[in-house]
Amino acid sequence: MSVLEVTSELYNEAEFCSTDKGNGNSISKFTFVYPNRRDAATNGIQPVLTNGLDKQNGHSVAESSSKASSVNDPEEEVEEEGSCLEEESLDWQYDENLCGEEEDDYNESGDECCTAALQKKLKQPPIKLDKDGDVVLERRRKGAIEIEHRKSTRLDAVGLQIWRGALLLGDYIMHNERKFKNSHILELGSGVGLTSIVASMYAREVICTDIDIEGLLDLLRDNVDRNAHLSNPHCRVQVSELDFKVSYQDYPRDLKNKLQDVQYVIAADVIYDDDITEAFVRTMVSLLLELPKLKAIYIALEKRYVFTLEDMDSVAPCYDYFLRYFEKRNSRFGVNRWKLINVCIDFPRYFDYDKVKDLVLLKVCHARK
């Protein structure tokens, strides 16, 4: 009986500098450009496409993102510091074309979607010329994250690979660096650790978690150590085992203690199997109930479409199942305790990958009374 092997689409769309380690693993360099904050507008609002690989490559992120219409949420409020107008609650008709402002923004009007309309209002920075009258081109500071990973695995070991959602979530963290600065972050399903390493560049503490399959946790620790030079020198990065199928009550006491300061939970590419999806949602619910300082959970994923005779259409069954199961758990007592928000992904791309339109970034947080 043949074993199903899966391979991340990421490996076919970008030329990563990879070295074969000889043990079935590869070490790849994932290059990025650091955010440039000098072009930021007043009040902390950052215009889209003022930095990152997209401007550098001469094209817009919006070209690979679906167009969104403006929706107001009068109850959205400023939390701390923000940089992108981006979020709107998903209703349970699954209308994913809505995009409004994020709670953490400084936008006071609340009338624009994402930052496309906002850009028109912002004064563009003056063009700098040298003494000969030539345009001075600013060179972006670059970096690279070295990750040891597999390029093909069984379905139950996909955490050993790198998927697009990890890079999308990395972009989001870098673009909202002030939000995550000095914060305490938990990553669920960290895999080989790329997104946790990005988070460690800004956070005070990052707890990387996953199941220990085929030496995954040791590989995760090695990747964290390999990229320690990129981390905030004050950041503490820890690796712990956390299985979605284990209830919060059965977590080790030391892990429970570590989680008490967590403010943000992040997860990338964990929606691909219905059983794991159910366990992941139950884990989310437990963390929302048990962690006193938790502000939000961010989930990055790629909707994978298949054509079914039942629907006579192309559908994304794993994504749709996640939405249905989350709503089932959310409304089990007759009231929605949490809200699921579709985050607009029209922010700069700092990593080198294809930001396809089927990428999704979701935010889960407590519903306001």
TrEMBL record:
Region (Disordered): 48-87
Compositionally biased region (Low complexity): 60-71
Record GO terms (molecular function): protein methyltransferase activity
Pfam families membership: Methyltransf_16
GO cellular-component term (any): nucleus
Composition skew (Acidic residues), residue ranges: 73-87
This protein's name: Methyltransferase-like protein 22
Organism this protein belongs to: Anopheles christyi
Taxonomic lineage of the native organism: Eukaryota, Metazoa, Ecdysozoa, Arthropoda, Hexapoda
